[in-house]
Amino acid sequence: MNMTLRALLGATAMLTLAGLASAETTITVATVNNGDMVRMQGLMDDFYAKNPDIKVEWVTLEENVLRQNVTTDIATGGGQYDVMTIGTYEVPIWGKQGWLASLNDLPADYDVDDILPAIRGGLTVDGNLLAAPFYGESSMVMYRKDLMDAAGLKMPDAPTWADIEKAAAAMTDKSKEQYGICLRGKAGWGENMAFLTAMSNSFGARWFDENWVPQFDQPEWKATLDFYLNLMTQYGPPGASNNGFNENLTLFQQGKCGMWIDATVAASFVTGKDSTVADKVGFALAPDNGLGKRGNWLWAWSLAIPTSSQKQDAAKTFINWATNKDYLALVASKEGWANVPPGTRTSLYANAEYAKVPFAKMTIDSINSADPTKPTVKPVPYVGVQFVAIPEFAGMGTSVGELFSAALAGQSTADDALAAAQALVTDEMTSAGYIK
Amino acid sequence: MATQSSRATARLMVAPSVVLLFIWMIVPLAMTIWFSFRIYRLLSPERSGWAGVRNYTWFFNSPDFWLGISNTLLLVGGVLAITIVFGVLIAMLIDQPVWGQGPLRILVISPFFVMPPVAASIWENLFMHPQNGLLAAAARGLGEQPILFLESYPMASVIFIVSWEWLPFATLILLTALQSLSSEQLEAAEMDGASALSRFRYITLPHMTRAITVVILIQTIFLLGIFGEIFTTTQGGPGSASTTLPYMIYKQALIAKDIGRAAAGGIIAVVLANIVAFFLMRSMGKHLDA
Amino acid sequence: MARSVSTRRKLFFTVAAWSVALLIFFPVLWTILTSFKTEASAVASPPELLGADWTLQNYSDVWARSDYPRFFLNSVIISIGSTVLGLLIAIPAAWSMAFVPGNKTKDLLMWMLSTKMMPAAAVLIPMYLIFQKTGLFDTRTGLVLALMLMNLPVIIWMLYTYFKEIPGEILEAARMDGASLKNEVLYILTPMAIPGIASTMLLNIILAWNEAFWTITLTTINAAPLSAFIASFSAPQGLFYAKLSAASTMAIAPILIMGWFGQKQLVRGLTFGAVK
Asked: Which residue of B has its CA nearest to C31?
């Protein structure tokens, strides 16, 4: 009797608890601290108005730290996060391990067919969309129109590397701390190697041949590195081996760079309020070498749900809100079209209002000219433009990046750096079992 | 003198610390030893099994290994030399009667209040940056080319930054030791006509010996594990010019996601630390009791 | 006569000490100044001081963008909690090692320090797994325990050193005079030990406050302290020096203020100790 009563009471208590739990679900969203993501956190009132039963807790971290924390969590099945912000490098690798929940069942108004094909392809594994793109980016040339005019030059919309070298030479005036070109030199697979791998594609180089044999001993890589080193030592800023995206952005905003080839999202910063050269910036496609491939990359920060999450329905509701067309309209109405997260949807680029944004056309053209499945001139066994979507790449890419960064600092030659890279990558690929 | 019972009480008083620290040490250590012989790549769970000693040989065969070891020792030695010498001088200086002693001491120990990643970031971006840094501006003001600190002198720059962070720790401990030095003794020596230098040599310095020993031992243990400042400022570069053993481990664990190798590196680092500690204890352990 | 010499001497040392102190403090000061500039002014070259664009915008941005009070509260709980707990465990241990030393005391001390020899990155996954399995992940309890154990060797070492400074003859003299153990501890040892304990406490609160690897790795939301707050402001896209400086200042300020009061306590404690 007493027992029954207790059991009943217990059951009631459990039910009440369950009722409470369903009344409000709290999801944990891990995100990088980039501008577009931070802006989203300021627009959450709209989400709460539409979904009063879901509460979102943010874990906002710097890119490197975020990547460390979410990777550790997902690989050990920690289950701390319900939504993770990850990039196009992670999605295929994690997807293959079955760590990401499929997003194929998002509601019809999500309009998955509206997502740019190049971006969507990179986030789909075996027919399952595993991450919803929040913003997409390619890379392009940003240049100073005033300095080009002063030098009597005109930047073509689709320049060659020879055009870039000529322009860099003409715009360099080291006595005025004005450097013809600023490029990434900081070591890291997502820093200098993102740029150099994308650049190498336009020189016809590749990381591996069809049998996963490293190709750093081939003339194409030598041509890439020689060109890069020559460009940077003659026309680049001093100390460039420590310059990443942020350092170059600062230099460009201060008016110290004639050109800067980097992420398309930088366009809104160099034309934004902190920039001293906001009204003098022109845009062009990333350069080529007449081989049919341009040196631009493709990346998308995307929202994904780990299979270890216990709250996948609420997480999906959130992802739908954050990457839907309505969200783009919401940002446009609150912050203006220039601040809409770019590079994810075809409809955005069909919008007449958005077309007025100065960098809109060049961004979409850049994204469309990148093909992750055929990144370079010759065939490759991997997917990815500025990376190789295998788990070993982050480690190898960073080590090779260090070698190239040392060459930029003048501590070794291009030949030594390439030989060391070839040896290192061959070693890793052999021990990982790619090379039999 | 000590009786049987007071010895037993003494053991009882030490026991909680020993037991807790033992558990805290042995569980991760055992796991690390286990992982160090395993193939364990975080992102390729399908590749697993025994690695034999391959994780260890990877380190020994790495072109950066010996450079990493010598950089680690250079970092420890450099920072110790700077913090001890300046720590002693500054402690003696601020031990003197001066106006505004309280605020003065706060300023001296202020670097210790700054989180290491923030400190590294401040030095990198606001001071050593070749275009925007204050030091570059100063150089240009003098009509000189800015020095490329992190590119041309990466190890020296890292040692300098870490020394700035740790100087307050040394100063504070040394200062507290100085305070217990009886001023009568110094005054008596002064009366006897002992010079300032010999007063320092024969009275002040011996009095601080134990404190100096403690600073050296504690700092050595902390400094042997430093990698955050290197990651923030130089990423171990250019190339591997400022790579240390902990930074190599960091790269294996957090960038390459090779937990087996990181574990092997950890064991190597523990062995290295034990060797360093052994020599330190042999050369200065006697100063601990005195 | 002696007076004027000592005044001149004091003036000399004041000038010298303040120059050194300001030099050491300058980077912190520059960070605080930068936090009140606009982003464009923060990276202006040559550096701007008088003509700078002063603003409070960075602080309101940082405040609006994150839940500072929560991070702050976690930092306070974690650093004070781990230090107090550590002192409770360490004081008896250091005490007995200092006053009843055995022939193994030095080895024991060295062994304690050796528990800190493993580089953090090497035990990342082991620690992560331990914290996940024991349910301590992202809890304040977990971080209090972790930081306490991490700093316990340092606490014991520092206390041991300070206790060693207390001359044993005083105790013997007191015993000769027939002081009870209670009186011995209360009236002789405690006043002499307080400065050492205070300075150990101060240093360890700072060590715990500044720990920025495990506090970020082992937390997500509930227990995340100011180190995680900082990590959300470093190196985003776009100019960030001024905002990072503001966030840094907000992370430093509480501990700096605590240090201020702590230092006053410390100085008072020290003068107590000096009266022998």
From this structure: B122
